[in-house]
Design a protein that fits this description.
The chain has about 140 residues and is an all-alpha fold. About 60% of the residues lie in helices and about 5% in strands. It has two domains: about 10-45, no CATH class; about 50-135, no CATH class. Helix 4 packs across helix 5 (about 110-125). It starts with 7 loop residues before the first helix and ends in a 5-residue tail after the last strand.
């Protein structure tokens, strides 16, 4: 392994660059990795703060939109299954159900039940058949 010559003044200005200098070795894989890391660091350091903030705001808005959508879907599925919309009965500290809201704990919303649960029940029933001896056979599901 070759020794890096570090400029103390350069290390004081940019300690990350100094770290990349230290990673440079005779191993071509490690050298390539260090060069890629250095290039990423230089590209991100050159990006204006306003651009970084704009990208973070856009990402935050996408994540917030996805969260709201998934939370709404979870609440609909909980209502269809008669479960606690907050924790599905998994948290004893839940203010709504105190951990007792597993599916079937509450009266299901029948419209949501028909929309979300019944298609799965029908699919399962179609895949389950009774054999002549009265035994239930469950073929592999597709």
């Amino acid at each position: 392994m070759s020794e890096s010559v570090l400029d103390p003044q350069a290390a004081a200005i940019d300690p990350t660059a100094a770290m990349f200098d230290q990673l440079m070795t005779d191993d071509p894989r490690l050298r390539l990795f260090a060069e890629l890391m250095r290039a990423q660091h230089q590209a991100s350091a050159a990006e204006p703060a306003e651009e970084v903030l704009r990208r973070l705001r856009e990402q935050h808005e996408r994540l917030r939109t996805a969260y709201v959508s998934l939370k709404g879907r979870s609440e609909q599925l909980a209502a269809a299954a008669g479960a606690c919309p907050n924790c599905w009965g998994e948290k004893s500290a839940c203010r709504y159900c105190r951990g007792e809201g597993t599916p079937g704990a509450f009266m299901p919303d029948w419209e949501l039940f028909a929309q979300y649960i019944m298609p799965a029940v029908r699919r399962r029933a179609a895949l389950t058949r009774t054999t002549p001896g009265g035994h239930t056979a469950n073929p592999k599901e597709e």
